Amino acid sequence: MAEELLGNEKRTASGDSGAADVLLEVRHLKKYFPVRTGFIKKTDLKAVDDVSFSIHRGETLGIVGESGCGKTTLGRAVLRLEEPTSGDIIYENESIMDKNMRPYRGKMQIVFQDPYASLDPRKTVADIIGEAMDIQKLYATRDERREKILDLMSLVGLNSQFYNRFPHEFSGGQRQRIGIARALAVDPGFIVCDEPVSALDVSIQAQIVNMLEELQEKRGLTYLFIAHDLAIVKHISRRIGVMYLGHMVELAESAELYRNPKHPYTQMLLSAIPIANPDLSAKRRRIRLTGEVPSPLNPPSGCPFRTRCPHATERCAKEMPELKEQSMGHFVACHEN
Predict the structure, then answer these.
(1) SS3 letters for the chain?
(2) Which of 56, 60, 95, 287 could form a disulfide with 268 if both were Cys (CB 3.0 to 4.6 A apart)?
(3) What pLDDT digit, counting tens, does each position of 61-116 carry?
(4) Could you tell me if 317 and 301 are in contact, meaning their C-beta atoms sit under 8 angstroms apart?
């Protein structure tokens, strides 16, 4: 299934079967956390369960879903900050599952969600940005190091006078710019953006998202953009994957997903997006789901969404739906589609 999915993604992204340049492939990725549920007994918490996708060079793939669906764990597992339980991760046509990741840290980076917790409060801006450069030995002299750090600060909109200041002296938006500069310090080709704007004010969110787009254009960056704000994901992503309880339930190009959502969970998410026009908002039918999200320690049999789905049948309780292509480049994991 993964080979079919990845092959179809290559075809649809460029309009033909051979032109797309796939940077990253994820195949049947699983990440289980053993959790003690008794004096001796342990149960696997299935944070990511059999997820496959690919990302093309220069593309932004958005990942959305409610809290606890496995988005952040997926991003961390792709970078092997969390060691996957099984599956394969292929970067530039080479599997990195059994590789020493140190050389790949210069190619694959992450921007963390919380700009307050992700920066070492004991280090200056210069040392935070320059740490990865120190590890990767990317400069010959101290003057060259300083020049590179100042260039990165300028690139993300930070004044050079902040060079020797500490994180507590900055606002949330400025701290996130420091985090982005840190990720760019080793000149990576691929960056996982783990909800990079969720902790920021709305006006600052727009600035950070616009900056990420400008950096992508200037440096040819590829993003895995994780978020729960569907409006932001629609704006920045070329394709979007929807996750629920550790599974990818729908994957399509951004415009197609918003125009024609096929999975009931995706339809529910899109119906919850606020509309600024009160007349349009009053006419729109919001889909309300009953029940709570099942525990990943004890997921339901068959389709993970069936306990909240208004269209669930007996088949949904017995069989796990596969992520299949329903139309060109539009993949859905649902028996009813």
Answers:
(1) CHHHHHHHHHHHHHCCCCCCCEEEEEEEEEEEEEEECCCCCEEEEEEEEEEEEEEECCCEEEEECCCCCCHHHHHHHHCCCCCCCEEEEEECCEECCCCCCCHHHHCEEEECCCCCCCCCCCCCHHHHHHHHHHHHCCCCCHHHHHHHHHHHHHHCCCCHHHCCCCHHHCCHHHHHHHHHHHHHCCCCCEEEEECCCCCCCHHHHHHHHHHHHHHHHHHCCEEEEECCCHHHHHHHCCEEEEEECCEEEEEEEHHHHHHCCCCHHHHHHHHCCCCCCHHHHHHCCCCCCCCCCCCCCCCCCCCCCCCCCCCCCHHHHHCCCCCEEEECCEEECCCCC
(2) 287
(3) 999 998 889 999 999 999 999 999 999 999 999 999 999 999 999 999 999 998 88
(4) yes
Beta bridge partners of 46: 32
pTM: 0.89
Range 13-35 average pLDDT? 76
pLDDT at 37 over 90: no
Only one residue has tokens 């990079």, namely 196
**Closest by Cα among 174, 237, 182 to 208:** 174
Mean pLDDT of 49-63: 96
| Residue 203: Cβ within 10 Å count | 8
Tell me the per-residue pLDDT of 257-286, one tens digit each, with 9 for 90 and over: 999 999 999 998 888 776 666 666 566 666
221: amino acid identity, one letter: L
